[in-house]
Amino acid sequence: MSNTSATVEKGLVATATQNAASKAGENLGNRAVNWVINKLSEQYGKSLVLTGSVYERYLDNAYLRYNQVKTLVTGIAPRPIIGSNSIYISVGVEYKAKEYSTATVEKLLTISKNLLICGTGGAGKSMLMRYLFLNTVNRGEYIPVLLELRKINEKLASESAFMDLIYKCMQDFDTELPREQFEYSLRLGKYVFFLDGFDEIKNAFAENAAEAIQKFAAKYPENAYIMTSRPDRNFSSLETFTQLKTKGLTKTQAVIMSGKFWEKDEKTIDFCRQLEVSLYDQHKDFAQNPLLLSMMFLTFMHNGNIPDHRVDFYEKCYNALYNMHDNRNKGTYKREFECASINEHEFKLLFARFCYRTYIENDYEFSEQEIISIIDSCIQKLKIAGITAQMYLNDLCKVVCLIVREGDTYYFSHRSLQAYFTAVYVTGRPDEYQKVFYTKIFAKSPWELQYDAFVMAYQLSPERFVRNALESPLRELAYELNSSCDAELHVLKKLYTERFSFRLDHDSKYFAVGFSHAHISPDYIAQNAIKLVRALEMNSDWVENSAYRMFTVGNMISKHIDRNVFPKKRDILVSIQQLESVEWFSKSAYKKVIEYLLSNDEVKRIISKIYEIIENLDKELAILNDSDSFFDDL
């Protein structure tokens, strides 16, 4: 047997390496639970004999809940993460250029007790949190608590409310541990908290939520905290959290995962074989990401090939989902649409409108009432007859699997699909609508603006995107640069308008660096245009690099504060533009900050690209005005 065939065959028959030897309820002799029970009994008396059954019920019920998961590729049938027929493949994490195993929580906690795992959408962060929860239950060294941070809202983004949320998280699994005893148990240091999806907290609540999480971790420092997020968030308030990065799937991992998606059949074997031989190397940015790999798989099952470009990939993937059969595409039974009276174009347009409406509001999770209301407004806007919002929602959930329902909550199967169809909807509108839309949306804070949709709008229609979205702000910026004595510093200050917030603790010895937009009016239109030029034209992940740089700058500033003259106030705000003149910050330190931000010639390349874009626009305008060459150049 060839090496390729051996790897494919191994992937198709492999079970999860982390198969559980026992259920949660059979592992209640674990050391963490017993130790906490003994300590609680010492504190409150032997009347706490029910505590053991409380923890048993919690771990048993939570284990059953978190070990069943629906994915895009598995459809309506849930699959286990640990155990027979599991869907899980372990992903690694990277810290200081070294890879760390995620097989057990103990291996991760050798780095720090406060960890922030960053990864792009679909990298497997949520699945990792579930696996670590289940594995921790089985090992018995900690009592795990898994909290989905998207549940945080305005009322919950505070320290006391965060405690309420954690306590409720345990109560949801039929746990009746008295509140006083639970708070006492937190001081014993036997919990590990898995905080999943910091990036899914709405922007309006994110800063307060970060501070609440940090205060909670500081109040109960003996416990462990592992949080996940996309990298495009402001983490400055999380001072004690060490940042890690998810590793992409290796070729072997990708083949093994693909072999787990469906039953072993000819098409599955063919996909795994092609993935091993060529597809992984040709589409590495897809194949390294578990979510995109599952989309690749579905697309291959439907089309027999994988498109080269990302927007073509999403289009083919949607077509595969829309036309997917219950029997894994063998053609004998197709799921029935409740919205059978509308055609495929109308179905797609309605979904694109729904994605657009929710994307610009930064909404990706809904109650049933909320999602029905939004869908209904989209139906009315597009004047689609013969269907109801409930019928369409049922099709989104049960037929095309673009929306997932968990309990009373609905959310996108993946936010990249929301971004793609937002781009589809916007690029389908006339130029005059697009220009107004981009002007209004670019005026928002960069932390509120997700760039994925705009990158894909550019890929769908590059020339129209440049004319409608970028031309006006870039021409204005070029005018300013021509009048500036230091163009690089001018662009730098446009890019980094976030303010640094310096907070003192009660004994005035600790300095925490944060960011705030309070009481300032930065030029967000120019800033967003610059960042998109960086992302679109220079083929680099601006958001991730920018977030890392700002985090580094914050640390640099905190190290150079003259603490003897630092203002004796609880909360001080200052921007990069002001650092040069504030009394408590030295000129040499300001110079170091600016030199760091300019260190890799990035700003020079951005300026060059801006002028190049404007020059190309001028050439196009000249062609339009030249009647002799117009028809030849069209």
Describe the 3D structure.
- It is a single chain.
- The chain has 634 residues and is of the alpha/beta class.
- The chain is built from 27 helices and 15 strands.
- The strands form four sheets. A seven-stranded mixed beta sheet has the order 4-3-9-5-8-7-6, with helices on both faces. Strands 10-12-11 form a three-stranded antiparallel beta sheet.
- Helix 8 (203-219) links the parallel strand 7 and strand 8.
- Helix 6 (159-171) crosses helix 8, helix 12 (290-303) packs across helix 13 (310-322) and helix 20 (462-483) crosses helix 26 (602-625).
- It is globular, with a radius of gyration of 26 Å.
- The relative contact order is 0.07.
- Residues 7-29, 325-333 and 504-519 have low confidence and may be disordered.
Task: Put the structure in a nutshell.
By secondary structure, this protein is of the alpha/beta class. Helices cover 53% and strands 10% of the residues. Helix 6 crosses helix 8 (203-219).
